[in-house]
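Fold this complex.
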Amino acid sequence: MDWLFFAEISLAGLATGGLYALIALGFVIVYKATRVINFAIGEIMMIAAYFFLTFAGGMQLSPWIALPLAVLGGTLLGGIVERTMIRPMLGESPISVVMVTIGLASILVGLAEIFWTADPQLLPEFLPRDPVFLGEIYLAPKIAYGFLIGATVLVLYLLYFRFSRGGVALRATASDQAAAYSMGINVRRVFNLAWVFGSLAASLAGILVAAAGGLSPQSGVIGLSVLVIVIVGGLDSILGALIAGLFVGWLETVAGAYFGGEYRMLATFAVLAVILVVRPYGLFGTHEIERL
Amino acid sequence: MRIGDAKQSYLADEALWTSTTQQVWFGLFLLALFVFPFLATPYLLYLACLVGIAVISATGLNILTGYTGLISLGQAGFMGVGGYTVAWLSLHTDLSLPPALLAGGLLSAAIGVLVGLPSLRVKGLYLAIATLAASVFLHFVFMEWTPVTGGTKGLSLRPAHIFGIPLHNDFRMYFVIMPLAVVMLLGARNLFRTRVGRAFIAIRDRDISAEVLGIPLLKYKLMSFGLSSFYAGIAGGLFAYFFRVVTPESFPLSMSIFYLAAIIVGGMGSILGGVLGAVFMTLVPELLKLLTTVVTPFYPEAPVIMSPLRGVVFGALIVAFLIFEPHGLAEIWRRIRRFFHLWPFRT
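Structure:
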């Protein structure tokens, strides 16, 4: 067993996991506030990354202007989706709402192919390129800086939810919708806010992931890994999303490195199956008691 | 105009046919199905076979999702089990179509029961994800178990035969697929007149209440999984015989989503809905193709955006139906019928 190799792989995996955690956070925010499972999160990431490609590559803007613009674009997309597709579905069965997001995913993939063709593309370089060493351990710069940006945003998010007015409103809505409503919280705005924040996290993560691994209309399948993460961590637990994100990122990378790429999905879904059997509500999720 | 719908016995209430008119129309429909292949072009015949397969599989999913309320994203995986079983049997044995197809259906049902096991503990979306996991595992098995499944290259089948008659073209396959589809539809329709089917519906409406009423949840949920997978396995087996090749990519995740979409667009919890949805969703891409050939002279770019446009239309249909017509095509169909029943009065 080569420990250095293992450490390098593990570290790369954890860094990827950090990005996963950011995406999972975007997912959990939407779920906590609105009880909607967002199957289209991978596709929102993909669209945001294409926005970045257009701004930075096509329009030759500086990456540091293009990045906020693209994130803004993805965020707006999330807000619009909530207003036009999710809000009319309020009160419908969860299956229906999930299917709406699946339909949305299909629409977004199709649109991406129409506007940006189906060919894989590379994002313009915007992260520093010098290799990063932690002691002896080498880490690919794209992954390392992606992780740094992702982690910073993650911390900002957590602070926001803990201390700001909007964050408190969001948490109040999550814990009891009716009570929040009667306390004067504008629940509809909170729903919109949740989608906006969720899409913001997803957009940023989408650009960082695409910067490291390239971009194609099919990039949205990463959403499946995220689905596993949030189920493992517990759908309504932010802490769970963070821990499960790191863990699944690590597991995927290690399984991919030691057994080959085809085992990546298998490893994550094996974890999922075990979790579903042992703790169906996830590691940190709320165990809901059903009453008649 | 028809007035009232007064039934005087439970038997009449449960009856498959409520009027002679219905029986006559159904008879005419069967006749049309029988005559169709003699008049149709090869392309239409090919489409009809595809529709038949889709109808069987969508009905299976409807039993599970529409009637029992268990969402499944594994339908394509179950179809794959049926398809691969049939393909393997065709290559290694000399079985004729019925036993091979039955074997495919039964194996698929067994796997379905296995996948359904977590359904007592997890429900709703967690169950959907569990079935998604199952389909990922199945896909992995199709890819990696090379000695049996042929790996990424898949398996090529010899033409099926039934009672010594080889089924080597679409015309002959049609006479296997269509009758089978009709029989399986009638089977599903009848299922919901029986104790088992009613138990499924009770579980869908509220599983805890159903348990209180004395319905053993695990048994009936597993039964629903088994039945649904059996339908999927039969559909998969026909799929394999029809295309005479199965690869892991024949049964992608998008296919599971396709069937979910079909029953949503058609109308969940309605046999007619499953049929309408399957027909509609199979034909929409073909309509788009037709549209492309019409538009191309004026807009030469059309073929390029054709394939992505399919995805957009597919997604837009799902979203639009869920928002504007949650009960699907079956409801539209019912409204049209009502209009004629009540004519000259309006609703």
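The longest strand of chain A covers residues 132-134.
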